[in-house]
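Example 3.2
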Amino acid sequence: MFNTMNFLKGQGHLKNWLMEETEFDARNLGKYEAVFAQGNGY
């Protein structure tokens, strides 16, 4: 599976707390939606 998630986005006090999806890949959609939803407090 191709990794399109960047976990190294945060710097300083936000290190390891920010992440981004670098490009859309439908194969990872379920996993990424779960990670982002949990991060948003749902």
